[in-house]
Write a structure and sequence with these properties.
Radius of gyration: 17 Å
Strand order of the largest sheet: 1-3-2-4-5-6-7
Pfam family, one: Hydrolase_4
Number of domains: 1
Helix content: 40-55%
Protein name: Carboxylesterase
CATH architecture: 3-Layer(aba) Sandwich
Low-confidence stretches: none
Oligomer: single chain
Distance between the termini: 44 Å
GO molecular function, one term: carboxylic ester hydrolase activity
CATH topology: Rossmann fold
Number of strands: 7
Strand content: 15-25%
InterPro entries: AB_hydrolase_fold, AB_hydrolase_sf, Esterase_lipase, Hydrolase_4
Amino acid sequence: MKILTPKPFYFDSGSKAVLLLHSFSGTSNDMRLLGRFLERNNYSAYAPMFAGHGTSEPLDVLENGSPAKWWQQTVSAVEFLKEQHKDKIYVFGLSLGAIFATKALEELPEVVAGGVLGSPLYVHNFTGIRSAFMTYAKKVYSIQQDLTDAEIDSKMRLVSSKIDSMLIEISKTSVGVTENLVEIKRPYFIGQGTSDKLVNPKAAQSVAKDVKTSQLHLYNAGHVLTINKAHEQVQSNVLNFLENN
C-alpha cells in the first residue's frame, strides 16, 4: 500500500488570501477541501505544514514540533502572503490551528479577520485530543509493513511517554491566547460541531461571549468540520463571512 505524503499547498487565485492552519493529529490535507473551495471562489488559500507533521513517524510531532515553532510558522506564513502582495489576509485554524489563528488575530495587524473550527480554547481537559493522537499514531504504525507488533508496541509506549508534556505546553499556550480574547476587535468566526468528542462543544459559547465581534455557527457534526458531513455548510458560511469582511 503506497502512502501519499501530505504536502503544504498554496492556491494562488486572487488578491485576497486565507491562511489555513491544521490540527494536532492532522496535516494540511485536512484543509485541502476548504482550500479548493476558496480557490474556486477567487480567494488564494495557503496551508503550511506545522513542524513535525506530515511524516510517517508520529513521534516527529512530539520531538520536532512545539507551540513556539508553530506560532513562528504562523507569523512566517502571514509574511509570505504579504510578499505575494495580497491586499487582504484572513486566517482560519482547525483545533490546534485555532489557537494560532486566534493568536494571529490578537497580535498581527495584517490579519483583517478570521476564525476557528473545533477550537480548544477554554477547554481544560485534553484527554480527547490525547486519545485522538494515540489512535492516529497506532493507525500510522499499523500500515507500515516493516514493523512487527512488538516494535509497534514499543513505539506506542514512547509516544505515550512523550505526549503529555507536549499537551501541557499546548495548554499553556491556549490559556495565554484565551486571556487575550477580549482584545480581539476584528471579525471572528467560530464553527463548532455539537457532537465533537475531542473538545467540549460548550467551550465555543464561552469564547463567543468574550469576543464581541464573533459569529458562532453550530453544526450537527463532530470535530473535523473541514472534511466531515458539515463541510459544505462550513464552506458556505466561511465564504459568506469572507465576503462580508
